[in-house]
Amino acid sequence: METLTQTTSIKIIEAGWKHYALLAELGTATFKETFSDDNSEEDMNAYLSKTYSKEMMLENIKNNAVKYFIAYSETGDTGYIKLLHNANSQNLAGRVIELEKIYVRKYKIGSKTGAALMEKAIEYAKMNGYNYLFLGVWQDNERAISFYENFGFKTFNTRQFKLGNRVCDDYLMALEL
Question: For the chain, how many structural domains are there in total?
Answer without folding.
Answer: 1
